[in-house]
């Protein structure tokens, strides 16, 4: 039981990477829009796509943590 809890805790740490990734991407998107405001539509499209991909890794980590907790 205790190893499952430890493994679940490690799996949840994937949320840290996702948070850092979304933060960096948002910062770069804001910088890009401030440099070239006319490209805001394209930049926001790529930002949303990238944020969704980063968030997917966090969700996978959460699902793995739940699976490991039930073992």
Write the layout of secondary structure elements.
Layout: H1 2-12, H2 14-35, H3 40-69
Give a brief description.
The chain crosses the membrane at residues 43-68. The chain is mainly alpha-helical.
Overview of the molecule:
89% of the residues lie in helices and 0% in strands. It is mainly α. The radius of gyration is 16 Å and the shape is elongated. The mean pLDDT is 89. The chain has a single domain, classed as F1FO ATP Synthase (Up-down Bundle), CATH 1.20.20.10. The chain contains three helices and no strands.
As for the number of domains, it is: 1
CATH class: Mainly Alpha
CATH architecture: Up-down Bundle
Order of helices and strands: HHH
Write the CATH homologous superfamily: F1F0 ATP synthase subunit C
Count every beta strand, where a strand is a DSSP E run of 2 or more residues. 0
Distance between the termini: 8 Å
Low confidence ranges: none
Overall structural class, as computed from helix and strand content, comes to mainly alpha
Shape: elongated
Largest sheet: none
CATH fold assignment: F1FO ATP Synthase
What percentage of amino acids are in beta strands? under 5%
Q: State the helix count.
A: 3
Mean pLDDT, as a whole number?
A: 89
Percent helix, as a range, is over 70%
